[in-house]
Specification:
Oligomer: single chain
Largest sheet: 2 strands, antiparallel
Organism: Oryza meridionalis
Radius of gyration: 26 Å
Enzyme class: transferase
Number of helices: 15
InterPro entries: Palmitoyltrfase_DHHC, PFA4/ZDH16/20/ERF2-like
Pfam families: DHHC
Distance between the termini: 76 Å
Helix content: 55-70%
Strand order of the largest sheet: 1-2
Protein name: S-acyltransferase
Mean pLDDT: 86
Length: about 375
């Protein structure tokens, strides 16, 4: 049977592209084809497109492409929001049209017709809350409170004035070039939400990620139970083994069962695989942002700490070279990736996150932001 091998090949290529896109810049993949695929997906493909447009249509078409890029990447726009609504709407419509006829089924209760509506509605509500809520805009009226709430650590945050807003930028804040405003406890600008993720809406964003991870997982599992119920009710395994003499083993039955499912329930399989892949990706994002919440760190601060540590390593190496110390050959990148041991240069660099107050207090700060507490408003008079 060629069908199972086609599925394996398709899944392998999809996994390679996803891993290359998300993880291709990790040190472990440096110099490998995974890094080259990542470079092509994130930079090379667009660069070649520009060259092709310029060669085929001239400067005017190239400027048009650059203008579209500027609108999509450098200005607030609802393109990804519309895309999200389209994905959710089309996916749910396909499920309703192709799979609701099997509910209730052998393994699936009729209650799931209504649970799916509730699940999608809650996801849409979290999307609206994240997209249209104030992320924590820093203004001349509230900057003094934010300055008192978030002290400078003297390492990645030092007192300076925002050149655009003309106010003192509080620690943990950043001026978003897309939204053109300073955002307290800035995490990142999310194109999917067309909004910054900051002090006031991080809770909605994390809830959005977790809920959509659960929705996709729930949808993939329910579709799997629908397919299993169809196999049971139609006695596919019994017919294959008794009437067609197929060996009653996984290796013997799998090609025939897969061929039957692809012929009869190809839409359910495609949707289930799609939901499973999205659930896998969202699971990684959920784990990452949960870690950030538990340690009271933001995505912006993570990059700042990485830059600081790299700078300190470079300074330490230059000092060692100036003192005439013999530099040891660097360890294998695989050993560095899987080992928790550190070099001497690494041991002298300490990441002192003064905003980490313990997991419970960190989570409380995410779900009950400082700017929504009574103590925050009292600081105005201080």
């Amino acid at each position: 049977m060629d069908v199972p091998w086609l599925l394996v090949a398709h899944g392998s290529v999809t996994a390679l592209v996803v891993v290359s896109f998300l993880c291709g810049q990790w040190p472990i993949f440096e110099g490998t084809f995974v890094q080259r695929i990542n470079h092509f997906l994130t930079f090379g493909a667009y660069h070649h497109l520009l060259r092709l447009v310029h060669a085929a249509c001239g400067n005017g078409a190239r400027d048009l492409v650059l203008g579209v890029e500027s609108y999509c990447c450098d200005r607030p726009n609802p393109i990804l929001q519309i895309f999200y609504v389209a994905i959710i709407g089309v996916t749910y419509f396909i499920i309703v049209q192709t799979s609701f006829q099997y509910i209730p089924g052998y393994y699936v209760s009729g209650l799931h017709r209504y649970l799916s509506i509730v699940a999608v509605a809650i996801g849409a509500l979290l999307f609206v809350l994240t997209s249209f809520s104030d992320p924590g805009t820093v203004t001349a009226e509230n900057v003094s409170q934010y300055l008192s709430a978030y002290p400078y650590d003297g390492i990645i945050f030092e007192e300076k004035e925002c050149s655009t807003c003309k106010i003192t930028r509080p620690a943990r804040a950043k001026h978003c070039r897309i939204c053109d405003k300073c955002v307290a406890r800035f995490d990142h600008h999310c194109g999917w939400m067309n909004n910054c993720i900051g002090e006031k809406n991080t809770r909605y964003f994390v809830a959005f990620l977790v809920w959509h991870f659960l929705i996709c997982l729930y949808g993939a599992v329910i579709l799997g139970f629908i397919l299993a119920g169809e196999l049971k009710e139609r006695k596919v395994v019994y017919i294959l083994t008794v009437y067609y003499g197929v060996d009653n083993s996984f290796s013997g039955l799998f090609p025939h069962v897969a061929q039957w499912l692809l012929a009869v329930h190809n839409t359910q399989i495609l949707v289930a695989v799609f939901l499973a892949i999205i659930a896998l990706l969202l699971g990684g994002f959920c784990a990452y942002h949960t870690h950030l919440c538990l340690t009271n760190t933001t995505t912006n601060e993570t990059f700042k700490w990485q830059d600081y540590i790299m700078w300190r390593k470079k300074v330490n190496e230059e000092k060692a070279a100036a003192n005439g110390e013999v530099r040891k050959s660097p360890p294998s990148k695989w050993k560095v990736f899987f080992s928790r041991s550190h070099t001497e240069a690494d041991e002298t660099i300490v990441k002192n996150n003064i905003y980490d107050r313990g997991m419970i207090r960190n989570m409380c700060e995410v779900f009950v932001p400082l700017s929504e507490r009574q103590s925050f408003f009292r600081k105005k008079s201080d």
